[in-house]
Amino acid sequence: MTLTRVMTPLCVLAAAAALALPVATATAQAAPLRIEITEGVIEPLPFAVPGFIAETGAAAEAAANITRLIAQDLSGTGLFREIPASAHIGRVTSFDAPIQYPDWRAINAQALVTGSVGVAGGGRLVVKFRLFDVFSGQQMGEGLQFVGTTANWRRMAHKVADAVYARITGETGYFDSRIVFVSESGPKNDRRKRLAVADYDGANQSYLTDSSTIVIAPRFSPQGDRIVFTSFGTGSARIHVMDTATGRERVLADAPGTTTFSPRFAPNGRTVVFSQEQGGNTDIYAMDIGGGTATRLTSAPSIETSPSYSPDGGQIAFESDRSGTPQIYVMPASGGEPRRISNGRGRYGTPVWSPRGDLIAFTKQLDGRFHIGVMRTDGSEERLLTASFLDEGPTWAPNGRVIMFTRETAGEGGEAGLFTVDITGRNAPRQVPVQGAASDPAWSPLLP
Amino acid sequence: MTYFTKALFLVAALGLAACNNPDRYGAGGADGMGAGAGSGGYGSGITTGGLGDPSDPRSQAYFQQTVGDRVFFAVDQSTLSDEARGTLSGQAQWLAANPGYALVMEGHADEQGTREYNIALGSRRANAARDYLVSQGVSPSRILRTVSYGKERPVEVCSSEACYAKNRRAVTVLSLGAGS
Questions:
Q1: H-state helical runs in A297-353
Q2: Which of B8, B17, B50, B171 is deepest in the core (most CB within 10 A)?
């Protein structure tokens, strides 16, 4: 019973039948290998990824690249620490050879990932892997096999890393995902901004629009098939929607005499919630992605912006200055009385509901510094994860464990970049190596 | 039986020490700002013809430099200061004497504040300036539209209050050939 989708460039098949499974004993006297991400603090789990076996000479380069990228994905989480090949005692010479556990225990590798890369017809790569719990001497889960085009080698490596991450943490991974963001160039007082997409790690960058107008704050649909963003192409801010497969673009909300911005999809993938300004007053509206009449959800003389749905679609968090300073509020998705949830000192903005539903990420300004933070959906347990001259605009990894955001440096030469931080706050923010200056990232769902 | 240990380190909220930077909010406000400084770039205006001789009271250059084409706001505010009202009254008088011009009112914010909030804030500022012009007798039909650029189009690029104060602005951008 294998699952194969030949039409997609990348397919996964459970290889339990195709791969010889090692003997699995039922005498589990060892606790299962596991990382609890929710614990505030842990020592990174040491793992080894001996070079994936190239089944033919033609696969050698891909095998080396895939091995390196798997290790990079896992190490980049801060949850895992790679034991470098130079420290390995054991050698893996064949994908199906029995694992010599003592060799891996001796270097204190807790997890062992083995794999192979072969070449199939049509220039496609076949990537196989297995994961082992070294100290209990058992394979973790079944072996998996991924088949895809050579150009998709990075995605296959990400899928291996996602599977390893999922088996050890018990949560879905986030490596096989994309980001859409604003690529910036030019001086600060004449910044050029265009939409770009890249893999979550900054690889495979390409552009969706040219630099002829300002674009800001793109966001993916829950299925990843559309992007909504704000463009000044018609002279004023207007919400546009783009089909990611075709690149076709249209204006979504353009009622006469209004400005529209700050769009975000509902979990149903059909409704877009956004800010609409008329006569200087900004409120929150929702409308169908197909167009039509917008439904007004707030009605106040203050600024209401940056709306974000809860994952069940029942509530909307947003930013409002109705109290005199920008703060975060939550209201029913159909509108109605909002309740303020931000209660600390400072100004709060850009609330974004976690895909897990448990937290709201936000931007906070306090005493002249910017922070990215998280709070529970009732506003309790606020924690600040970053601090800098200008951090803003959080977006969640598909599994709700990592936040990407914009960090901009000060002054005339100030430049924006994309950074990630995990929500434990355990690891310092890391810059995502996209090409050039970048801002306003939005994470896609995990790719199929 | 656990085979990997979990060393516990208490992690304080990351990097929160030494975060104070009193310069960011400074004294704030538009007080003391020369409303007609007019030396900044005009990166976001609409293209018009020659600006003319600034000594000619009928020229756009005179409007920009002598009347003053922009007014300034305090942090997060869209309230017009007395100085801003004075500038806008001067603009209304100039527009009355030069009926061939229409205008677009631009609103802008400094880089404090989040990007989307600043779009809304710029709209507020543009509309406050627009409404005051109308109250001073400028026909609404001559005000083609308001537009907010949020913090996307600063004229000053330093990251201190001196520059922020010049970026928190509403700019009256003239265009020829309408309103006659």
A1: none
A2: B171
In this predicted model, what pLDDT tens digit does every residue of B95-139 receive, in sequence order?
999 999 999 999 999 998 899 999 999 999 999 999 999 999 999
Q: What is the mean pLDDT of chain A?
A: 91
Region for residue A324 given its phi and psi (left: phi exceeds 0; alpha: psi -120 to 50; beta: otherwise): left
Chain B, window 81-120: residues with a beta carbon less than 8 angstroms from a chain A beta carbon: 111-117, 119-120
CA neighbor of A246 nearest in space, from A225, A277, A230:
A225
CB A328 within 8 A of CB A321: no
Question: How far is the C-alpha of A35 from the C-alpha of A42, rounded, in Å?
Answer: 8
A281/A305 Cα distance (integer angstroms)? 11
Domain locations in chain B?
31-176
**Strand locations in A377-436, DSSP E?**
383-384, 391-396, 402-408, 416-422, 430-431
Q: Report yes or no for ipTM above 0.85.
A: yes
Contact status, residue A307 vs residue A320, Cβ threshold 8 Å: no
Which is nearest to A414 in space by CA: B111, B26, B41, B108?
Answer: B111
What is chain A's Cα-based Rg?
24
- pLDDT at residue A406 is higher than 90: yes
Amino acid identity, residue A176?
A: D
Other CB atoms within 10 Å distance of the CB of residue A23: 7
pTM of the full structure: 0.86
Domains of chain A with CATH codes: 4-169 (3.40.50.10070), 178-443 (2.120.10.30)
Amino acid at A53: I
Site from B2, B4, B44, B125 to mutate, A interface, most A CB atoms within 10 angstroms: B4
| Optimal mutation site among B75, B114, B161, interface A, most CBs of chain A within 10 A | B114
Instruction: Match domain B31-176 to its CATH number in 3.30.470.20, 3.30.420.40, 3.40.50.720, 3.30.1330.60.
Output: 3.30.1330.60
Q: At which residue do the structure tokens 């749905």 appear?
A: A309
